[in-house]
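Homework help board

Subject: predicted structure for assignment chain

Our instructor gave us this sequence and asked us to write out the predicted structure in token form, then describe one feature. I got the tokens but I'm not sure how to describe them. Can anyone check?
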Amino acid sequence: MWRHFELADVGIPVKRDGVHLVLTTRYRDVCEKMLCQAKIGVRPLSNEAAWALFVETLGSDLPPRRKLIAEDIAKECKGLPLAIVVMAGSMRGEFEDHVWEATLENLKRPGVLEQCMKESVFPILVHSYNRLDKNKQLCFLTCALYPEDWLIPRRELIELFIDEGAIHEDRRRKMYNEGHRLLDELEKACLLEAWTRIKRIPDGVICKLKKLQYLEADNIAVKGEEVGKLRKLELLRCRFENVNELNEYTLLVITIESYSLVITARSVTRAYRARIDDDYFNFFNRDKVIIMGEGEYKIGETCHLLRDVKALLIRGYGGGWNISSFMGLEELEVLWIKGCDEVSALGGSGGQPGEPEGQLEERTSSSPPEDHCPNLKIHECPKLKRIEMLDDASPPLSLKKIVLTVEVDGNREKRWWESLEWVHPEAKTTLEPYVFVDSVDGNIPLQECRS
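My token output:
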């Protein structure tokens, strides 16, 4: 159906008991104006469904070698039912392997599938396009400037529409409103597809994948208990929505070769994900990474980390820690503290001074027998005034460096370092050789920076 109409005008008694009407259309607004009770969007077929349709249309059995080629041909049809039917129909009566191989190779070339579908599929798309007004046609053609399956930001498209003269309004806000309306119309006509971000894998799905070895779901939340029960898993990249999910995973998991976990309630944007990939992971260069997002938690108490974590980033945290909270993490190589506006102290096990105002966590009484202090990287923690790491005049044996990140030069960082409060009288002098400023020129010793 291309437009709506009153069913009573054509004599369809939809209100009579037992009468059900099913209609198909390329326009969502037709469904809405026809008062459809259920709207079912048609999505591309899965590989399994596409193969079943291919076999049904072909109507004959295939030997093992030809079957493998046929499966690849079905996949090249991209889940489009009409394309699958056209291709399967064209292969009826072909019994030579070289014919099937040649067909597959041809399909992999740009434009071949479109040519094969031209007689059956293209007229439908042309009809949809021809029904658009000139402005919508111009907007649709603008999208053809991008590669196939490209994710195009709406704002970027609207700017192009304005540049191409498809939108004429006297104010920017009106232009954007008109741009969004045009894109909505193209979506309703099924000529553009809106990108929907998957935020969470539904509960009960992962636990069924008992043989799963690799799970790469960077920005997708998963249930910690279900992932922790996967005994074949070797690589994991995912997001836990809260500390409880991390705790459940930590409690159940045995060992895993590589993981990258982000703990945050909010779905990570593509821009933020890119910053993590470009900055954090390049710096860590480790195969076992945990990124703790904003929140209130106590390491070792309400938050239990994997004991083999090698790199730990804590950002946006509102509390304070005792350094000994991390001592049990014997594999930890890097601790990066970023954007923790309220953290006022990183406590150690030496001395028992009064707690400064604003520190949220009580000091633990003593550190484990084998202290392991990671590299420290500190950035954007304006209230941090105390770093306590010394029981005596010697630094922890495992300490390699403390890195302060800076945007321009190290002067501000050196002044901040000199303003810190020290419990042990020799702490500042003893630790300063381990302190570096991370600038565009690399790690510069703090002692080389001007005051």
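Reply (TA_rk): Your tokens look well-formed. For the description, you could write something like this. The mean pLDDT is 77. That's the kind of observation they're looking for.
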